[in-house]
Amino acid sequence: MPLAGYTVLDLTIARAGPTAVRLLADWGANVIRIEPPPSVVGSGLTGGNDNPDSQNLHRNKRGLTINLKNESGLALFLKLVGKADIVVENFRKDVKHRLGIDYESLRKVNPAIIYGSISGYGQEGPYSERPAVDQVIQGMSGLMSITGSPGDGPMRAGVAISDTSAGMFLGQGILLALLHREKTGEGQWVHTSLLEAMLSKLDFQGARYTMDGEVPGQEGNNHPTNAPMGVFESADGLVNLAASTNKMFRAFTAAVGHPELVEDDRFSSSKARFEHRQAVWESVNSITREIPTHELVEIANEAGCPCGPIYDIGQAFEDEHVRYLKMARTAPHKTRGGVDLVRSPINMSVFPQEGEFDRSGPAPGEHTDEILLELGFNEKEIAGLRTSGAI
Question: With a threshold of 0.85, does the pTM exceed it?
Answer without folding.
Answer: yes
